[in-house]
Amino acid sequence: AYLTVSIEPLPPVVVGDAVTLKCNFKTDGKMREIVWYRVTDGGTIKQKIFTFDAMFSTNFSQMENYRKREDLVYQSTVRLPEVRISDNGPYECHVGIYDRATREKVVLASGNVFLNVMAPPTSISVLAADTPAPFSRYQAQNFTLVCVVSGGKPAPLVYFKRDGEPIEATPLPEPPAGAGSWAPRNLLHRDLDDTKLPKSLAADGELGMGNPFPTADPPRGLAAEQDSVTESIPETVVSREFPRWVHVAEPIYYFRHTHAPVSDGTVEARATLTWTLNPQIDNEALFSCEVKHPALSMPMQSEVTLVAPKGPKITMTPTRARVGDTVRILVQGFQNEVFPEPLFTWTRVGSRLLDGSAEHDGKELVLERVPAELNGSMYRCTAQNPLGSTDTHTRLIVFENPNIPRGPEDSNGSLPGHRGFRFILALALTVILELT
Question: What is the CATH number of the domain that holds 262?
Answer without folding.
Answer: 2.60.40.10
